Amino acid sequence: MDLKKEKIQIAAAGLLIGIISSVLVLLGNPANMGFCIACFLRDTAGALGLHSAAAVQYVRPEIIGLVAGSFLMAFGNKELGSRGGSSPLTRFVLGFLVMTGCLMFLGCPFRMILRLAGGDLNAVSGLGGFVCGILMGVFFLNRGYSLGRTYRLPVMEGRAFPVIQAVVLVLLIAAPSLLHFTEADGGPGAKHAAVLVSLAAGLITGALAQRTRLCMVGGIRDMVLFRESKLLLGFAAIAVSALVCNFVLSAVTPGSYFMLGISGQPVAHTDGVWNFLGMLLTGFGCVLLGGCPLRQLVLAGEGNSDSAVTVIGLMAGAAFAHNFGLASSAEGPSANGKTAVIIGIAVVTVIACVNTFNKKDSR
Question: How far apart are the C-alpha atoms of 334 and 211, rounded to whole Å?
Fold first, then answer.
């Protein structure tokens, strides 16, 4: 495929995903949270009983759909594989720390874009930190950072994660009494679109993301390293279409889908310093992982067990953050959360240094 056609395809996918994200809010998802990989993994972790924060417990079908959509698209394009073995425990730790940064900011890179499209100016400081974190990661990439090669694995190793997602879907539909759910009006976990709508939205988004390799981290990284803008174009298209949809929805439906400002934004706080540092940790860790949380889910659907381990690390990080008071709230960041972010940045820096300047030649 020539580059021009590829850019058109990525932009078209981004426009559609932005529309889907806004429509999900119209149909019940929390404001400025049509999609948030970090928040949705956190909610799912709560529903599975991994944390006890009653306000954020719900199995998000969008996550299941993202994995299934990636799996089906990869299967159709004969791109399914089964590979892994590239420092899985390090990837688990990085995923854990990336989630710590996301929950300081209250959103993943995907939601950061949607927050901007909803008029939330707190996301501007988050975007600045995110870019700085990516630049820190690029510094190490330019000096040879690597977590080592991947290896071909038995087929079932690559299929396990999609199967797990299918089991969770069965639990949601057939045995919801085994799960934990936020009570009505009890918090963001109680706000969601219908199961089939959310699942379909995830399927479409997962398929498009697999096909186009959408990745916010990869877009900025490639722009810095290679002056290549195609991946960044996809997220710009998401922002534009979500912004337009929010304006339209605000004009034709009850409620405000676009509210420009800092104070009073939904599921957000106004501490710019910690929004910046939280997303700095997120961007830095994601570069070392090779992709944002959305990209990790897509790769896990394709059969990459390293990405599956990363997603498990993200969920463990979410559970730990809520069990030990690390996550921010609308009132602002907690003292524990601030400490965790600083420690996280230090640990990610150590991981980057060890895997850049202390590599064995035989690796």
Answer: 39
| Cα distance between residue 363 and residue 206, in whole Å | 33
Average pLDDT over residues 331-355: 98
**What beta strand segments (E) does the chain contain?**
83-84, 151-152
Tell me the pTM. 0.96
The Cα 171–Cα 178 span in angstroms is: 7
Cα first-last separation, the chain: 34
CA dihedral 221, 222, 226, 227 (to 10 degrees): -100
* CA–CA dist 22, 256 (Å, integer): 12
Residue with tokens 């959305």: 294
- Give a three-class secondary structure readout of 85-123: CCCHHHHHHHHHHHHHHHHHHCCCHHHHHHHHHCCECHH
The model's confidence at residue 4, banded by pLDDT at 50, 70 and 90, is confident
> CA geometry: angle at 100 spanning 231 and 67, to 5°?
50
Query: Which neighbouring-strand residues pair with 83?
Result: 152, 304
Residue 23 token pair: 């429509």
Give how far the C-alpha of residue 119 lies from the chain's centroid of Cα atoms, to the nearest Å: 20
Spatial distance between the Cα atoms of 10 and 115, rounded to a whole number of angstroms = 21
Tens digit of pLDDT for each residue in 98-108? 999 999 999 99
Q: Token digits for 126?
A: 């988050």
Convert the pLDDT of each residue in 139-173 to its tens digit.
999 999 999 999 999 999 999 999 999 999 999 99
Number of Cβ within 10 Å of residue 329's Cβ equals 15
Say how far apart CA 116 and CA 156 lie, in whole Å: 40
